[in-house]
Amino acid sequence: MAKPVRHNFVIGLIDFLLLNIALVSVHLIKRGSLELSALYIKLFVVFYLVWLGTSLAMKKFKQIAGRTFFEALVLIVKSNIVMVYLVSFFIVLWAHLTAVSRMQTFGVCCALFLLELLSLLLGYIIFKSKFTENRISSQNQTAPASTYYPLIFIDVVLLMTIFLAVNYIKQDSFSLPFRYDQIILVLYALLFVSSFLVKKYDKKNFDSTYLKAVTPCIKATMIICGSLAVMVFALRLFYYSRLHLFGTFAILFVIELVVYYVYYVYRKYGRLDKDIETADEVTAALNVEDQDRHLPQERDVAPLAEPVEIKLKHALEFFSETLFDFIKRNIDLSAIERKSTAILSTGEIEDVQNLDENRHKLFINLHKTNDVRWFNRYFLEIYGHLKTRGYFVGKVHTTTTRKKYYQAKYPGYIAPLFYYTNFVWCRVFPKLPYIKKIYFTFTRGRNRMVSKAEIFGRLCFCGFKIIDALEIENRLFFIAQKVRQPSSNKNPSYGPIVRLRRAGFNGSMITVYKFRTMYAYSEFLQEYIYEKNKLEKGGKFRDDFRITEWGKFMRATWLDELPMIYNWLKGDLKLFGVRPLSKQYLNLYTKELQELRKKVMPGLIPPFYADLPETFQEIMESELRYIQAYLKAPMKTQAKYTWKSSKNILLNGARSH
Q1: Is the pLDDT assigned to residue 63 strictly greater than 60?
Q2: 155 and 234: one domain?
Q3: Given the DSSP bridges, would you call strands 603-605 and 464-471 parallel, antiparallel or unpaired?
Q4: More confident residue, 318 or 627
Q5: 507: left (phi over 0), alpha (psi -120 to 50) or beta
Q6: Hey, which of 140-144, 320-324, 546-550 has the most confident mean pLDDT?
Q7: Are residues 504 and 639 in the same domain?
Q8: Which residues of 273-303 are buried (b: 16+ CB within 10 A; e: fewer)?
Q9: Could you tell me if 121 and 213 lie in one domain?
């Protein structure tokens, strides 16, 4: 606990006597008389108030014991500078005092400083034992400042903007009066000198508390206002508007408090570690060994002591009976122990980390996944706390369910306005390069708008299999099972250009580039989509919810395949050839066709556009005919298929779905 400050009243009385000596002597020298007019009585009152406030605020009368001579000297210098600033400030703002003598005012300040300095020297000679020895320590050396330049830019823009705004308020015009273009240069000079003097833009100010971050702003503003007051009074610049000079910096200070708070919060919450996105990061997080991707099947176990079904029903009856029925329909609750079940309602990953690892057979989180800061970290944390073949039941507010929520809550003409406003803030902003920093600073990632495809894709990326999903009261509940090792994909797609691993010539894997037409992480859902929806005519997945609205347009116009021209120039693809397929899709083909495909290079335009097959079987037959013909007569086959494809595309309007 810090010791209370004790003031030496004897020193205070002596200093008060010195102030009176300075006031009286300077007045006598200047006026030749001790008679005080009303004007100078007010000046004396100002000096008394400023002297008392400065002395108490700066602890000027603190016991000399424990203070070095140099520390006492610095304190006297600082207190007198503050006194000059404050007295000048009062005179400039108080119109009745503007006529006081500058020589007398500054003379009193100089006389008081000299008298205090003389008293300090005399006290040091007489009471030397009361002063401590000068302390020199290398530990007091401060680290070099780390300047954050955007704050300087913000100050530059704000100062000019506020100055012009104040001018418009006073003059009803942005045109500056005579000499005001000169004073703006002085204001900038004062701003920069004071700011760098107090290290206002140092990043380290934001590493502890908000008060420490804005303390340099307070100091800089005080130095600026004091310097302005001295300048106006000393040079008799009273023709400048006080509102222009001091109002500008008062407004600037208020706005800086907001700006510095935003940056402080960003430094504390916005610059968090990124999510786990690559296979190497997954390996580091879970210590996953390079082994068989699919986890072993469950072994037969002895009868359970206390199955979870009854307790789970009681726990969920006040939340949602529908949810319990949904869980029971997809999970054999009689095979899960109560003690191996965890039910939480949290958006914090730390709450999952506190659970015992590899112990739980069933994990249920009733809080929506949208509030979790990092989706992959969250899913991998759950993955690590589940037993093999364990189940994860979660909830998410998707773009679809959120639209339904607004449609149910608000009238028809208002609902779209609320939805799309929320869409921009919670869906678009988190993806923009710089704006997302502001978003995560204020929201910490909570309530993000996310698609069903992205959440399910991330679950599959993290080693889960989607068992089932159900909408309950405009919220999507899902059941996922830990069935495999997390994905070995080196770089899941998230940007506007996706990099897809496809089977190339001789079976080697190549990276194909396309414009994004699906939601992020959709590439991990191929198995799930096929099992749920199978294929439609043309070999595409039926009811593929992974495709975005703009993606449908891009596919119909082939805009999504423009980046594949790079693969063509690179030599990974030729102009006409079989479609480059993913491993999952390729596994649907017959073994014979899989082997034949290795003998030809895939192309930009597949045989599909020459034959226009409708079923998956017809697609395989079409590719088989093309490959067999190509292996016999490459040039003739290429010319034939190129002509037929061009005719169907240009004349018959054949397009991708």
Answers
A1: no
A2: yes
A3: unpaired
A4: 627
A5: left
A6: 320-324
A7: yes
A8: eebbbebebbbebbebeeeeeebeeeeeeee
A9: no
